[in-house]
Amino acid sequence: MKGAPGAAVDPFPSLVRPRSFTGPDGTLLLTLAGLWGFSFLFIEVALTGVGPIWVVVGRTGVGAAVLFGVLALRGEGVPRGRGLWPRVAFLGLLTNAVPWSAAAWGQQFLPSGLVALLMAAVPTFTLVVSVAARLERFTPGRVVGLGLALSGVALTVAADTGEPERVAAIGAGVGATVLYACGAVYANRRVAGRASPLAVAAGQVLVAFLLTLPAALLLDPVPDPAAVTLPVMGAVLCLGALGTGAAYLVFYTLIERVGATNTTLVTYLIPLVAVAAGALFLGERLGYPAVAGGLLILAGIWVAQRGTRARG
User: I need a labelling partner for 275 at 20 to 30 A (CA). Which of 104, 108, 195, 309 fits?
Assistant: First the structure.
């Protein structure tokens, strides 16, 4: 099954049962936006005490524990099936271990709200990858939306041409969005329907933990115990338990209730939450080019999706 035009490809089409939003559905959508939007704030606080890969180690370790705990409560097992685990492992590398590490590294040099705005381009790159994989096709509306979104990314990059570290960080953020897009398409073609979505999510997050732990030991300094303060530990725990474990649970619950396309409405809300949280709790202020670039990205997503959301 093809994914939502201009949005993240639904890797689990068997769960899509689109219908209109109810009050509880709207609450779930806002909850998901909060969980993922505040994740950028949690990362920012965690980076004050540990390196970026260690942030991902903590996030995936706690997240995997939460997800496997939910599976146990539901009476579900781990992903099973011939050849499934190598695919789940590759998915964990492609959509968790590498992009989360790249985005966390970039957030050392960029405001959390700016990173969130860059992440909003995921649906745009998913469309490009989907077209390349012949899962989707371009239409005039999608081409216009794609152009707007990519212009927004270009504007954001151009605003930082005088600061090499920030340009590299933006590149890491954009690279992370491309990997998310590739992971969504790969899941659609290679993993969909072979196990429950939550079991796959638990498996890929566990794999990401197993991959990032040795990477952190090799590439990141071992955290100084004195730097791992209560706020740092709390941020890592919240990032893993809320921004990973609980967020995956809410995400797939929403897909079951309102369909994949309706769930992608969260794409518009996450940057708003992240920018507001960064301004309120960290005193971040984004420049006009970054704000304009973010608005272009969101406008591009809206144009590409317009007229298709009703199909779920």
Answer: 309
